[in-house]
Amino acid sequence: MKPLVAIVGRPNVGKSTLFNRLIRRRAALVEDVPGVTRDRHYADASWGDRTFTVIDTGGFVPGDQDVLLKEVREQAQLAVEECDVILFVTDGRAGLTAADEAVGALLRKSGKPVLVVANKLDSPIGTVQALSAEFFRLGLGEVFPLSAEHGLGIENLAGTLLDKLPAKKEGEDSEERPDDGSIRIAIIGRPNVGKSTLVNALLKEKRLVASEVPGTTRDPIDSTLTYKDKKVVLTDTAGIRRKRSIAHRVEKYSVMAALRVMDRSDVAVLLMDATEPAVDQDAKLAALAEEKGRALVIVVNKWDLIGTDQRRQEAYREALKYSLKFVGYAPIVFTSALTGSKVEKVVDIAVELAEQFRYRAPTPQLNRLLDHMVDNNPAPIVHSKPLRLYYIAQVGTAPPTFALTCNVPQGVPEMYKRYITNQIRKTFDLRVPLRLLFKERP
Ligand code: GDP
Ligand code: GDP
């Protein structure tokens, strides 16, 4: 797992500007998952030899402008509970405010590494130091003067940040998790959708005999099952929550918890509550799985409260597919964790998806598919040239990743990418996210 770094502070101090600086985002590189309106509030950043995930906690708060002190404190609390290092951003020109002091007190008690940032100090060094001096009153040590907007002070801040990260663990940067033969499933979802009930129901299933191998679960939130001779490790993100104090009340926590376990999972099982239509938070979690390139099973739980009408289920499925178009490949299962109905099917599908996730397509078949695609769909014009696709090869798994050699790798239209993705999906029956890379002919 990569270390987590949180950016906290009251609205308008420049958190999202700093976030963008840290992840070194260039606007053109940001690809949005179509269908979700969202700003990205978390992204991986690389500095020196480390990669870490930065979370702009302010971004989780709706209507930033009229955020209450309570919410800023809640954010800070969440950051304290979940993150490894906290960047506490203040407005260096406005000086310390009551809200800053309240958050400062909370952070001081936490014992977590905190770096105080005095932002908006765009002026020369002398002034900068004078301005940032009052922030020492927070009792959080060194104060980092910064102009997030102009990129001043970033290198210095990032350098200290690297020192504060927990010691580097082996393999923490790798996107592909090690293949030790087990299938790792993360159970994600908003609070109260039934995650823990589902895990408990699965652990009671006689056919899913929990394996007795000691040391198989490295984490108390992991449970190990055996399904069709395969070792399956379930991670219940609600379990993380129960160990903590306040975070359980906070809906946005589910995104943070999912973020934490996603990197080491093959499959995300996203639980939703059948009695509450898909909400923004569900979409965010689905988008996270797509973005991280993890297989996804959508589980509509509490179906016992809806009834047994088959048509109702089909209508629900259609509506859901429509609102979560960007993960249209993900299978949907209707369950009742309470009665145990269809819970085994969740594991069954997750195991199947885990296999697809590591699938390797035979090259001859891929090349036949390429010919077929080229013949059947007129090449789009890119930069006033017709797009020519020369070769295709699978260059990775988990998720399956395909490289296409072509004449104009930049600017292949989204429509055409979707066409290719769908064709690959259909040909090899892959209901997992896929990645395409376009390369120029060497
Ligand atoms: P957030 O609400 O804390 O995420 O703050 P934003 O990053 O959205 O920034 C709020 C405003 O402050 C925006 O208008 C930014 O352009 C501005 N801002 C951010 N950083 C700086 C800075 O270093 N100097 C100046 N002068 N303005 C800044
Ligand atoms: P979590 O926060 O996602 O782990 O949710 P819990 O597993 O704690 O469940 C929240 C509440 O929903 C509890 O009262 C459960 O008994 C209830 N619940 C969970 N699954 C079902 C279900 O399939 N049907 C019904 N009717 N209630 C459920």
TrEMBL record:
Residues reported in the UniProt entry to bind GTP 2: 189-196, 236-240, 301-304
GO MF term (any one): GTP binding
InterPro entries for this protein: G_ENGA, GTP-bd, GTPase_Der, KH_dom-like, KH_dom-like_a/b, P-loop_NTPase, Small_GTP-bd
Keywords: GTP-binding, Nucleotide-binding, Repeat, Ribosome biogenesis
Keyword Ribonucleoprotein: no
GO biological process: ribosome biogenesis
Domain EngA-type G, residue spans: 3-169, 183-358
Residues bound to GTP 1: 9-16, 56-60, 119-122
UniProt family annotation: Belongs to the TRAFAC class TrmE-Era-EngA-EngB-Septin-like GTPase superfamily. EngA (Der) GTPase family.
Stated role: GTPase that plays an essential role in the late steps of ribosome biogenesis.
Self-association and partners: Associates with the 50S ribosomal subunit.
HAMAP family assigned: GTPase_Der
Protein name: GTPase Der
Record lineage: Bacteria, Pseudomonadati, Myxococcota, Myxococcia, Myxococcales
Gene name tied to this protein: der
